[in-house]
């Protein structure tokens, strides 16, 4: 009877773990990138206190760029270069950015300068750049530089007719694109709505890439949302998507144990010095 009971318990545990494994495989991925890191210590600190799966995009000329680069690396957090790029309007961009008409050599030089500051970056995404990402020549130059630096490109999709993904494929560079902007509107209710939209997008498409900024309401929504993240959603870093990693469930712990009875559980029982609770 005891043997049958033991077998039944073992079967139940293995069955439960199998169901857990199936559930793990059905998880959807949520990747969150926080742009504009490197300017405001208080807001940056709130982001860096979040799970390390939250990726950060650092503007190379920001006053705290090098510090944030080191801090993120120490935390094991994925880092992107948030590269200023020419927009459609007349808005000025930061020094070291990319402009239409640049040569391949100039683009490569700007990417190298950015990488010298944000040295642990694994990829680049565009800061503004509605004009830049729609320009085939500039994007071809950029992707060539990224291939040399072994960086991937995350298209922030600031314009619908971006050709960045097409040029990346042409140059053999891995590219990804943003699906949801978290805080186009800074109103708390709007940010909350966008976070829920990201959850639904991940469930429907399997993966959602979200971009936000180090702002008060964005921080509040992320703190609350990540604390209560649904069990079918897995938070991942951008590096995981870049490497195309699969969700792998943990191995059932039952397989790690030998089911041979311990010597002290077999009659006749022998007391052993220094062991407590051994029957006599």
TrEMBL record:
Gene3D superfamilies, alphabetized: Glycoside hydrolase/deacetylase
Domain of life: Bacteria
Transmembrane segments: none
UniProt record, GO biological process: carbohydrate metabolic process
InterPro entries cross-referenced by the UniProt entry: Divergent_DAC (IPR006837), Glyco_hydro/deAcase_b/a-brl (IPR011330)
Protein name: Divergent polysaccharide deacetylase family protein
